[in-house]
Amino acid sequence: VLDLQQRGAQSIGMNMENAFIVKRRKYAVALRLLYIYLNIVAPILIKGFNLVTIAQIMTMGFAESLTLASLFALSHNFENSDRDPTDSFRKTGKPVCWFKSQVETSSTYGGWLSGALTGGLNFQVEHHLFPRMSSAYYPYIAPKVREICKKHGVRYAYYPWIWQNFISTFKYMHSVGVGANWTDELQPLSGKN
Questions:
Q1: Is the dihedral angle over the CA atoms 146, 150, 152, 153 positive or is it negative?
Q2: 8 A C-beta contact, residue 129 and residue 149
Q3: pTM (2 d.p.)
Q4: Nearest one of 87, 130, 126, 85 to 105, comparing CA atoms
Q5: At 62, which helix (H) or strand (E)?
Q6: In angstroms, rounded to a whole number, what is the distance separating the alpha carbons of residues 129 and 82?
Q7: Tens digit of pLDDT for each residue in 37-84?
Q8: Cβ(128)–Cβ(99) below 8 Å
Q9: What is the C-alpha R_g of the chain?
């Protein structure tokens, strides 16, 4: 956990020991240790090791996790999202455009204020395209990204207000929950698959 090794990336043979990562690892480890200290160690030192303190730590962890999960659900589960960007490759053998798949599997909502409140997670399209760019720049590049997507016929999902993204997410979740997206070849309740 503390060594910041990407176990998933390692399992498929990706080398995460490039100069960029190695140079910044000490800062990432320091931030992780600071987080652990402020959110676990300090409350125990100040309030003592008891059930109330542990419950408060667990409640905070639950709230953080729920918030993050909600933000990811909004950014990746919406109407007309491309749920399987590799489908065309499997059917036709035509290579998948990495940029197109990143844009069509994520969405952006809100603007600068949402970005400030979520640490830039609301600009998920821009994050997928430019993961190492500071999220402070996402509001400035988003209009250009939308313009380029429109020019090349790539579906860019943008919701000016978070409630619009919520509605789209709930509609999407309802449609997949009732099987509205099942096709003729995919009928899991028919007993044929």
A1: positive
A2: no
A3: 0.70
A4: 85
A5: helix 51-76
A6: 16
A7: 999 999 999 999 999 999 999 999 999 999 889 888 889 998 888 878
A8: no
A9: 21
